[in-house]
Design goal:
Keywords: Membrane, Signal, Transmembrane, Transmembrane helix. The chain is an alpha+beta fold. It has helices at residues 2-16, 22-26, 34-48, 59-74, 76-88, 107-149, and strands spanning 92-93, 98-99, 160-165, 173-180, 183-192.
């Protein structure tokens, strides 16, 4: 029974234009009663009757289609099936049967999606890296001030050059910084503790 509905919908759209529904063709609302559909059928049948339209190409097909459509809409069970497909879409014929059309992205849309996704991921990684580096710099500044001013953090007058260790353990690297007031300047970076020139 559903295939009959699919065939009629397909034929109706082919003959009357894409998007034409049973209701729009009969000029009634989807909530119309059976009596309203009967009146609309009689009116449309007078308009499409082959005796009133001699020589009009395809009039017999249109008139017979009208009878089938009104029969579907007057029967409660078949109307319920049609209303389901009216609201959810009618599957299209695909050579071996009726199938719902699914969105299948093309090369351009997939490429755009991948570029956007990789850009967002790159931004997230860069933001995390930036936060980590800012934390390291703040820690280095705090260590430099502690070494220059002592644990009580009392600022001293004038600049003071200090070495701040970067890593842990023996042979770890350090940086030379100049603490001057609230400012901390990098003098030399990555100096080995064992380096005699440092």
């Amino acid at each position: 029974e559903d295939y009959e509905i699919f065939d009629i919908v397909s034929d109706l759209e082919a003959a009357e234009g894409k998007g034409t529904t049973f209701y729009s063709w009969l000029d009634v609302s989807p909530t119309a009663s059976s009596a309203d559909i009967g009146r609309a059928y009689r009116k449309k049948s007078l308009e499409l009757h082959p005796d009133k339209n001699p020589g009009v190409k395809g009039i017999h097909d249109r008139f017979s289609r009208l009878g089938v459509i009104s029969g579907i809409l007057r029967n409660a069970e078949s109307r319920e099936r049609y209303d389901f497909f009216y609201k959810n879409g009618v599957p299209k014929w695909r050579g071996t049967g009726y199938y719902y059309a699914r969105y299948r992205p093309g090369l351009v849309s997939v490429s755009v999606f991948l570029v956007l996704l990789s850009s967002v991921l790159q931004y997230i990684v860069q933001a995390m890296t930036y936060r980590g580096e800012v934390t390291k710099v703040r820690k280095l500044i705090a260590q430099a001030r502690t070494i220059a001013w002592g644990p009580k953090q009392n600022p001293i007058e004038g600049p003071r050059k200090v070495r701040v260790p970067i890593g842990e353990g023996e042979g770890s690297r350090s940086v030379e910084v100049l603490v001057h007031g609230d400012d901390v300047f990098l003098v030399r970076s990555l100096v080995s503790r064992d380096d005699p020139s440092g």
